[in-house]
Amino acid sequence: MLGPHRYGKAETRLVRVHRDGDTHGLVDLNVSIALAGDLTATHLTGDNSAVLPTDTMKNTVYAFAKRHGVGEPEEFALLLARHFVRTQGQLDSARVSIESFAWDRLGPHSFQRRGDHTRTTVVTVTRAATQVVSGLTGLVLMNTTASEFHGFVKDRYTTLPETTDRILATAVDAKWRHLSDEADWGKSFQGAVDAMTTAFVNTYSLSLQQTLMSMGTLVLAKRPELAEIRLALPNRHHYLVDLSAFDLANENEVFIAGDRPYGLIEGTVTRDDAPPATAEWYQ
Ligand SMILES: O=c1[nH]c(=O)c2[nH]c(=O)[nH]c2[nH]1
């Protein structure tokens, strides 16, 4: 029996220049499309009469970029997802995922790629509902103190010393689900990022789990348009170097930046009265 299936074009790279006289604007996206619906025939017999080619999906991205321009990534994702569901009767749903790479302006037509994090969105349009998820990956944060970790379980394999002063560092991956398919997407994104960083800075941390909860809670408090936020926080361990062989005391000043393994702290914070998600959003 054929199980769940979907198909689409992954990672269409689009750069759209908006020309306004001498001053140009720049949008740099990675667009992935996944369609689902009555696609049994192609799987069972190779009958492609319901299959919109993935090549066409790629072309649609570029044609829409020219015809409609590209504003906020959520807006462009909604436009594309709605188009596929509206024009292809055999489909039940369209999911459009976009990574958005930011460029800072250096001049009227000159830009420098910002390397600090990537903005993301996943829009799912079904015949019954629309769900907009926004987020980011790779927002790297560090507190050089105001972090403790102690009182944990100790069994025969536990060697970790308790600490009342450590580095807390992470690279935030976060997704948040909007209550509606209309919002000021740019303002909402920036507000969520500001809330996350503010909570990271202001939380005196007894565990990264506690910091995660603070970050999620502040985002929901500051952004009424959001129902739920999911955070994945790798714990970028920093190990104190033993300098005693050189007769040097190390008073939390010299660290080895650990690579692997890392702790992975994940959690979702949900508004009490949040309606359920209308499409899968955990993947
Ligand atoms: O904030 C932390 N949470 C943990 O669950 C954990 N486990 C660990 O070894 N170090 C840490 N730090």
What would your notes on this structure say?
- The chain has helices spanning 40-44, 54-68, 73-87, 185-202, 208-222, and strands spanning 12-20, 23-37, 91-101, 103-107, 110-113, 118-126, 130-143, 168-178, 226-235, 238-240, 255-257, 263-270.
- The protein has five helices and twelve strands.
- It is globular.
- The protein is 24% helix and 36% strand.
- The mean pLDDT is 97.
- It has two domains: 1-128, Roll (Urate Oxidase); 134-283, Urate Oxidase.
- The strands form three sheets. The protein has an eight-stranded antiparallel sheet with strand order 1-2-3-6-7-8-9-12. A two-stranded antiparallel sheet has the order 4-5. Strands 10-11 form a two-stranded antiparallel sheet.
- With 283 residues, the chain is α+β, with helices and mostly antiparallel strands.
- It binds uric acid.
- Catalyzes the oxidation of uric acid to 5-hydroxyisourate, which is further processed to form (S)-allantoin.
- Its EC number is 1.7.3.3.
Keywords:
283 residues; Urate Oxidase; 5 helices; 12 strands; 36% strand; globular; oxidoreductase; Uricase
Quick description:
This protein is an alpha+beta fold. The protein has five helices and twelve strands.
